[in-house]
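Look over this today:
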Amino acid sequence: MYRATVFLQRLEPRTARTTAEVVKVALWPLAIMTVLHRVLVKAVNGFRTDDFAPVYRAALAFLNGEPVYTANFGTVDPHYLYAPSGTLLLSPIAVVEPELSRWLFIGTNAAAVIVAGWLLLKMFDLTLSSVAAPILLLGMFASETVTNTLVFTNVNGLVLLGEIAFLYLLLRRKDAWAGVAIGLTLAVKPILAPLLLLPLVSKQWRVFVTAVGIPLILTAVAWPLAADPMEFINHTLPYLTESRDYFNSAIVGNGAYYGLPTPLILLLRVLFAVVVLVSLWLLYRYYREDRLFFFTTASGVLMAGSFLLGSLGQGYYSMMLFPLLMSVVLRNSVMRNWPAWLAVYGFMSYDSWLSVRFPAAGRAAEYMKTTFGWSLLLLVICGVLVVRYLTAKREGRLDGGIDPVFPADEPAEKPRASVVA
C-alpha cells in the first residue's frame, strides 16, 4: 500500500509544470502507442498491396541461382525493380521463411525510422529530453508515408535512415562516411540521387568516392552471381524510364490518369522546373554558408521536385522531406507559415478523402492530395525566398543576405534550433 501511494504521488507535480513539460507528458504516451499500433497491428495486418512479396521472391531466386527479372509489367501488381546490387543487399531476407522475414523487415524499417528521427534531432542540436522528440516521433508514425511504408512493407524506412545519416555526416564534414550512407541507398534504388548536388556545390568531393564506388563494387559482385543480370538492362530498365497512370502522384502520372493534353502536362512540368531552379539558385546564392538551413531546405526542394517532375512519384516517398519539415525550428525557416503546413497535410496525412456521398469529388481529392501537397510546398518555398530577395533588394541589404530582419531581442548569431527542452 505504501509503495502504491509513493508511486501515485509521483504523478502529482510538487511545483507547477512548464508548458514544455506538459506537452512531453501528454505526447510521449501518444507517440509510443502510435508506434506500437503501426508496427504490431497495421503493418502486420497489411492492406491493399504487398511490396515485400516480389522482393522476397526475387531474393529467393537470386540465392537459388534462378532468373530474377521476370516481372509482367502489363499488370498493376507490385513489380521487382531493383538493380542486381540491390538484390545482393536484400538477398538475406530470403534466408528465413516468408512470414517471419516480413515481420523482421517491418521491425527493421520501424527501427530505421526511429534512429533517423534521433539523428534528425541531433542534426538540429536537440535531445530526446526536448519537447521536439515526442512531437517528431508522433508526427512520423502518424503520417501516411511511414504508415504505408510499414503496411506495404517496403525498404523506404532504411532509405530514410540513409538520407538523414548522409545529411548529418555531410554537415559534420565526414565526407567519406556520408558517401557510404547515400551509396548504400543508391545501390538499392536511386531515389536520393538528386541529393548529390549538395556535396557538389559545397565542394565536398570525397563524398563521391564512396557514393559512387559502393554501388559499382556491389554491382561488380552481384553481376556474376545473378542468373539474368542483363534482363535488368533489357527488361526492367526501359520500364523504369516510362511513366504510368496508376499509383503515380507525379504531374505526368496524374495528368495521364485524368487525360490531360500532353502539351499541358509538359507546360506544368516546365513551370515547376522553373520554380525548383529559382529556389535552388536563391538558396545557393544567399544561404550556402548557413549549412544547416541550406542542406535541409535544398534537400526538400530537390526531393519534392524529383517526386513531382519525375516519371514516378508515390505518396510514401514523402518521408524524404522530414529534414525540411524539421527545419521549422530554425528562426529563418521557410516552413513558418500556414500554407506550408497545408501542403504538408496533402502529402503526409493518413486521411482518406474517398466519399460514398460524393464519389467523384472524393476520388479526385484522394488522388490529387499528394500532388497538390508537393506542388504547394514548392510554390511556398519559392514564394518565401523570392519575397525575401525582393524585400532585401528594396531595402538595399542584399550584401548581407536575404534573411528577414528579426526583432532586436533575438540572437544575432547564425540561426539555430529555437525549440527549448
In short: The chain has a mean pLDDT of 90. Residues 345 and 373 are 7 Å apart (CA to CA). The two ends are 35 Å apart (CA to CA).
